[in-house]
Each structure stands twice: as C-alpha cells, then as structure tokens.
C-alpha cells in the first residue's frame, strides 16, 4: 500500500498538522517538533499531545518527524556537536510523547576535516542519542552531494549504520538528493543499480520513508533544490519509472515541494496520483 503526504506546518500547535492531513485525505505527514531555526524548543503542551495522538489514531495517519536543519552531528566543532546530540535527544523524547516512531535527520557536514572524522563524529552522536532514548528509530537521509557533506553515497550511510551497530537506524531516501548526487533514477537500469547499492550497503528493508521531490537542477548538480513533481529535471517519466520499480510499490511517500505560482500541494498531489496510476500502482 502507498501512503502519500506532505511536510506540514505546526503553526498554532503540533496537532494542527494531523488535523490538516486528515482534512485533505493524506495517509502520512511529516513535521518539525519545534522551531526549525532554533537549537531548543518549548515543551509540547499536554493538551496538544492528547489532541495529536487522538487525531492520528482516529484517521489512521502515520506521522514522521524531522530534525531542524541546524543539527550537524558530523561537525568537528565540539559545541555544535554537543548541541546536535542534545537536539536529537530532545526530538526523540518529543516523538515518544506524541507516539511518532521515526525521526529523520541529515548526517551533516564535516566542514572540511575529512570524511573519516565526520563519520566518527556522527557515529558518536547517534550512539549517544540512541542510548539515551528508547523506541524511536532514526532515519538517515541521503544528501545531495554538496561540498563536505556526508551521506550522498549509500555506502557511507551503510558504514555509519554498521559502526553504530544499532537496530534503530533506517534510511530516508530523498529523490531530489539522490538525483543531485548523481543517481539517475529516470533510467530503469540505473535505478536498479541504485537499489542494488542500497540493498548491499544499507538493506532495502531499511527504507522506511521516501521524500518524493523533483529536482530544480540537473543530474549530479550537488544542489539541494526541490521542485514540483514532474516539472523538474527528474520529470514525470522519471517518477513513473520510480513507482514501476518493485522497491517502491508500497510504503510512505512525503513531498517537500514548494508553494509558488507554478504549483502547490494540491497540484503536486494530483500529479503524483496520476503518476501512480500510470505506473500501475494503487493507494
């Protein structure tokens, strides 16, 4: 079964996100658990927790949380590294309170100190966080391949998972990031190669979420610029190819597409539903 949704605002309270998802018929959604621009956020009101859980249960929704982008567990800066661990733990605790099983995070940047040191830093950050808080699974999101980033190649993600040696680590696959990092998901054979790489280094079963985003710029650009589904460089045919692959015949797909004069959540959802139908898949 395929479940679709969007990253949603928590303006006015975290329970507004599932309420919006339910109103629009989504099967899943993603949200920040506080300000995306601050290292720390306020505790979630008890009433908000109850409302969130109630709406999710009543409407059979499946929520995912995302760490704010300030978090950089690969950082060589001890202050940033420590604050990143604190942020991960804080968000995991909020996930437990809200009944959210998965927390997505970017692996970050080694800031020019080298991939080996960056991986060592993220291994210690993830180990500390998983030891501190139970139940929640951390989903490592592949990066777009920008300078000094970690995780644009799936063998890097697999190496981190192996080093941590924890079961509560999975993969969030972002289609825009994969394309920007050089994986041509438009081509059936090359998509198969990418999936084989994921399976050998991470494991296909570790793909718990797909961020379904088109790419504003070309293959291998290294630029993390999401675009409307079917209107970017991946294009409609690329997403039809994706959904025709058995690896994506079911699961959770969340869009992080922009809202502007060229499209919005409604137009992107309509396009994805049309693509899924053309690919011969069903919700």
Descriptive report:
The chain is globular. The chain starts with a strand and ends in a 5-residue tail after the last helix. The longest helix has 21 residues, at 78-98. The mean pLDDT is 96. The strands form two sheets. It has an eight-stranded parallel beta sheet. It is α/β, with parallel strands linked by helices. Strand 3 (62-66), helix 3 (78-98) and strand 4 form a beta-alpha-beta unit. The protein has helices at 16-23, 46-58, 78-98, 115-132, 154-164, 175-180, 188-201, 235-244, 265-278, and strands at residues 2-6, 28-31, 62-66, 102-106, 137-141, 169-174, 207-211, 214-215, 226-227, 251-255.
Number-wise, the strands total: 10
What is Rg?
18 Å
Could you tell me the strand content as a percent range? 15-25%
Taken in chain order, the helices and strands follow as EHEHEHEHEHEHHEEEHEH
Q: What is the overall pLDDT average?
A: 96
Q: What layout of secondary structure does this protein have?
A:
Layout: E1 2-6, H1 16-23, E2 28-31, H2 46-58, E3 62-66, H3 78-98, E4 102-106, H4 115-132, E5 137-141, H5 154-164, E6 169-174, H6 175-180, H7 188-201, E7 207-211, E8 214-215, E9 226-227, H8 235-244, E10 251-255, H9 265-278
Parallel strand pairs: 1-10, 2-3, 3-4, 4-5, 5-6, 6-7, 7-10
Antiparallel strand pairs: 8-9
Question: What attributes does this structure have?
Answer:
283 residues, alpha/beta, eight-stranded parallel sheet, two-stranded antiparallel sheet, 9 helices, 10 strands, 41% helix, 16% strand, globular
Sum this structure up briefly:
By secondary structure, the protein is α/β, with parallel strands linked by helices.
